[in-house]
Give the backbone structure.
Amino acid sequence: MTKDECKKVVVDIIADIAPDEDLSNLKPEVRLRDQLQLDSMDFLDIVMELRKRHGIEVPEADYIQLASLDSCAEYLTPKFNALAAKR
Amino acid sequence: MNSRTHYDVAIIGAGMSGLAAGIRLAHFGKRVCIFERHNTVGGLNSFYSIGGRKFDVGLHAMTNFVRPGVKGTPLGKLLRQLRIDRDEFALCEQKQSRIAFGARGETSLRFTNDFAVLESEVATRFPAQVDGFRRLAAAVRAHDDVALDAQPVSARQVVRQHLTDPLLEDMLFCPVMYYGSATEHDMDFGQFTIMFKALFFEGFARPFDGVRVILRVLLDKYRAAGGERRMKAGVRHIVAQAGRATALILDQGEEITADHVISSIGAPETARLVQSGHHPATAIAPGRLSFVETITILDRQPAELGWGSDTIVFFNDSARFDYACPKDQVDPRSGVICIPNNFDFGAGRHLPEGIFRCTCLANYERWAHLPEGAYRADKQRWYQSLQRSAQRFLPKLADPAALAHATVTTDMFTPRTITKFTGHLGGAIYGAAQKNRQGRTELANLYLCGTDQGFLGIVGAMLSGISMANYHILQKS
């Protein structure tokens, strides 16, 4: 998986969690919280959807890694690739 | 199907909170089953049919209405958490509502889903109070009402820091208390802010077909997520061992086990189910606030009687607003009128029949033990009394007999009806006075959601189920 594909995975999840948000002009380097109205319940849902859909575990201490799309890609892409290698 | 004996989570009660908790848990892969004693879902917000006609119970209006695009409010959180598209609820806004005080409602504050209307009404009727009112509104706005560890503070005391006119104070407390207070006379400021926002900053709406639309959406989501439910399957006992709920015994005698149990039936009601071999030192007292409601079906739109376009009217005829369990069977001095026809259903679209509902405070004990004949006679007597009382706060009928002529059928529920169909002790619609924000019980894997967890209104009920499922189960697995 590339980092861009990883970002798309995250954007797809946000689109399902928060269909009332406009995701067309998301800046990957800016914190999601600063561009979208996402609260802690929504971030918890991103984590849980990652687990449900892709089997990716994000421990609570690492939630901060999901702050922006860029940081999501940095943090999650190796996890996706490690998982793919195992299969 | 629906015949296994072990679940990840068992939920007691298929009301709004239980269904919402169930949707969250099933969506995230938990094997979950809702056990409901009644044959219909909805609990305190349900509906029933008599003679092919559907009557809503509980819901006058869905509070917390905000228009599309308004974010960060309870309705938005609820829709996101349950993956509901707001079009599925197809909410129609109220036209206008009023708070009417005085023997004939001489002092009246109109409000709509636009807060500026109430603010300008306060400025007109209470010019000396409007600055204080604005400060109060700012304090409400700034209050964090969803913290699960907040300490209770008297709302009367906080409001009096901003308002000095007891009439205005009572006029604001009347709708806030009628739509959610489980305590008499005063309430916790956190609860006050939840209701103030839900009623005044946000507002009233309902689906054209009433509460059953919301229930249908919840049931469809729950089913689609893989949730199971068993109707006419009440939980008779919760078996407890070593501080944990180890099994549920159903009314039919069947034994069910679950890793977690969420009970939406109320704190004292849940405590009564627990068989732990010892009784907890502090029993939770059931709530004291119950209601009667009259429902009058009309052969025409209520506006045709000259009653205008009020959706909800909160009224009180006395010097002070007395929100308490009455000594008599009913206290007709204050109450709530609901005219469901006066939601804005769109041009040319209106409910097929007129509906006139009136709700007043009632005393459970004075209704609970009456023999059947006396019960029916008292219902009849109070029906007339409520109708007379409520009409004082609506425009006077040109012909005093017009209401009787337009009436097709009537119904009435009492505190006894509430307990019979919902199992809530004392007919307590808003549950026990003491709320339990974290939903913990004496058993480590048994949690509460719903009225006694303390988020109010039907949006609050659903958020309660969501929060408890998140907090106790989903965040920890």
Summary: Residues 372-391 of chain B form the longest helix (20 residues). Chain B has two domains: 6-59+210-283+434-476, 93-207+288-421. Chain B touches chain A through 19 residues (CB under 8 Å). The first strand of chain B starts at residue 6 and ends at 12.
